[in-house]
Amino acid sequence: MSSKQIIMLGGVGNASVIAAAIKDARRRGYDEWDVIGYLNDRMQTGEDLEGLPVLGTLADVQKFLDKGCYFINTIYRIDGQDLRIEMFEKLGIPDERLATFIHPLAYSAGNTTFGPGTAIMPHVSLSSGTKFGRCCLVFANAVVGHNDVFGDHCHFAAQSCTGSYLKVGRGVHVGMNASVRENLTLGECSVVGMGSVLISDMKDYEIWAGNPAKFLRLAKKELTS
Length: 225
Ligand SMILES: CC(C)(COP(=O)(O)OP(=O)(O)OC[C@H]1O[C@@H](n2cnc3c(N)ncnc32)[C@H](O)[C@@H]1OP(=O)(O)O)[C@@H](O)C(=O)NCCC(=O)NCCS
Description:
Number of strands: 22
Distance between the termini: 41 Å
CATH class of the largest domain: Mainly Beta
Bound molecules: coenzyme A
Low-confidence stretches: none
CATH superfamily of the largest domain: Hexapeptide repeat proteins
CATH architecture of the largest domain: 3 Solenoid
Strand content: 25-35%
Strand order of the largest sheet: 6-8-10-13-16-19-21-22
Number of domains: 2
Radius of gyration: 17 Å
Oligomer: single chain
Mean pLDDT: 97
Order of helices and strands: EHEEEHEHEEEEEEEEEEEEEEEEE
Structural class: alpha/beta
C-alpha cells in the first residue's frame, strides 16, 4: 500500500517537529504516512523548511484536498487561540482528511481514543480510557493519565504530566514539564505554565503558573503575534 500524504499547517516549531517525527517513523518501517511539505501564510511558497518545501498558503487547502492529501494543524498560540482555531475550522477540511499520527515509540493503552488530526510524539505514555478530541498535539515524553476527556485542539507540551479523570475544554495548553492533579476541570483555552503544578480547576481563558499554580492572567482573545 502506498503511503498517505500529509501536509502540515504551520511552520518551524510544532509543524517541523511533527514532520520530523513522521519521517523518523518511516525510517523505522512505519510507512502509513509520508509528509510532503507545509502550508504557511508567513513564508514564501517554494521555501525550504528543514528539508521539506512550503507548498503554498492556507488558501491552497482545497487544491491539496483535491489531490487526495491529508492535513495536521499546528497553528496554535496561548494568546489568540480562539481566532486561530476559528481560522482552521473555516478551512473546512473534512475529518476524514485529518491525519491521526501516533509515533511508533509512543505507548498507548489499547482503549485510548483519538480524534482526527491528533499527533502523538515519541516517548509519550497514554494511560487507559482517555479520549482525545480532534487535532490534539502531544509532544515528546508527555505522560497522560487514565480516563481523561480532552476537547479539540488541546496541546500538551514536552514532558508534561497530566493526572486522571480530567475534564479539559478545547484549546487548552499544558506547558512543558507541568503537572496537573487528577480530577480537575480545565476550562476552554486555559493554560498551565511551564514547570507549574496545578492543583485547582481553571476557568475558561485563565492562565495559571507556579508551584502550586496561581492565577496569572487571562489569555488574550486577540492575535498578538
Ligand atoms: C505562563 C506563561 C504563558 C506566561 O507568559 P507571560 O504572560 O508572557 O508571562 P511573563 O513572562 O510576562 O511573566 C509574568 C510573571 O509570571 C511569572 N511566570 C511566567 N511563567 C511562569 C511559570 N511557568 N511559572 C512560574 N512563574 C511564571 C514571571 O516570573 C512573571 O512574574 P513577576 O511578574 O513576578 O516578574 C508562560 O511563561 C509559559 O509558561 N508558557 C508555556 C511555555 C511552554 O509550555 N512552551 C512549550 C513550547 S511548545
